[in-house]
Amino acid sequence: MSHTSFNSRYRRTMQIDTISVPTSELNYGCLTAGDSGPLALCLHGFPDTAHGWRSLLPALADAGYRAVAPFMRGYAPTSIPADGQYHVATLARDATVLHDALGGDSDAVIIGHDWGALATYGAAAFAPDRWRRVVTAAVPPAASMATAMTTYDQLKRSWYMFFFQVGLSDFVVSMNDLEFIERLWADWSPGYDASIDMQHIRDSIGSPEHLTAALGYYRATWGSQPVSAAYQQIQDVLGTPPPQPTLYIHGRNDGCVGVEFAENAAAGLSEGSRAAIIEDAGHFAQVEKPEEFNRLVLEFIQS
């Protein structure tokens, strides 16, 4: 187990540890902070890593949670799945498996960003007794996102999803030390210096096999490969709003998903849910405005 001191500018003293969590399906590399308390599982998206939670993990630990951020399936150091499955139902199943492996109980909370948000919606709807509170960011609930994907403006923002369906994307995205991904960050979080994040991303999905895994999420969602029967029960509840109170967070300047689809995101969620817009933040609000993001999360999960 290695230890990484947390950046002092966030005024946190808790260390972030690196652990390995073996399961019957995958070996997960995880970042964690806090040795006891309810589980707080934090799921990252694309193109990101568990390091995207480097501010929130210590804040959760300081508040009495055992905070764990896995590298999602296919993102090193987590292993690449032998079954090649990257459907959202599979990601939601991973969250359930990790809840068991980490000794979570009914007081656990689940927090997801981007693809991690989709996994969070699915996991919370499939096994609501496992998660007391739900927090998602950057990808609105199914009803709002479905509306978004029928509009010209959002389809224009989402062009990369369709580009990832063709083999040329493997070559183009890998060029010039993942310059394509660096440009996505610049478009999605205008004005933010992502140099630290990009180094972590290069370490995690810089190899051809791990980059293929990361792009596989999009190919599974928009392609023709059916979800494995092993995940069908979760697939059946996808799109169902989580029954728990849910906090949805979105950056005002998000260049990936338009803020107009986020402002009323809580309308179709359970009682006690709410949506929050962070000003002067883009798609990666958790690293752009960490203090505001952390405050919103902690106030909600402690309520």
Describe what this molecule looks like in 3D:
The protein has 303 residues and is an alpha/beta fold. It has one domain (2-301): Rossmann fold. It is built from twelve helices and nine strands. A nine-stranded mixed beta sheet has the order 1-2-3-5-4-6-7-8-9, with helices on both faces. Helix 2 (88-101) packs across helix 3 (115-126). The protein is globular. Residues 1-12 have low confidence and may be disordered.
Mind sketching the topology for me?
Elements: E1 2-4, E2 16-22, E3 27-33, E4 39-43, H1 56-62, E5 66-70, H2 88-101, E6 108-113, H3 115-126, E7 131-137, H4 142-148, H5 152-157, H6 159-163, H7 168-188, H8 195-205, H9 208-222, H10 232-235, E8 246-251, E9 274-278, H11 285-288, H12 290-301
Parallel strand pairs: 4-5, 4-6, 6-7, 7-8, 8-9
Antiparallel strand pairs: 1-2, 2-3, 3-5
Domain count: the total is 1
Q: Give the low-pLDDT segments.
A: 1-12
Q: Rg from C-alpha positions?
A: 18 Å
Distance between the termini: 33 Å
- Average pLDDT rating: 93
Secondary-structure element sequence? EEEEHEHEHEHHHHHHHEEHH
Q: What is the approximate shape?
A: globular
Number of strands: 9
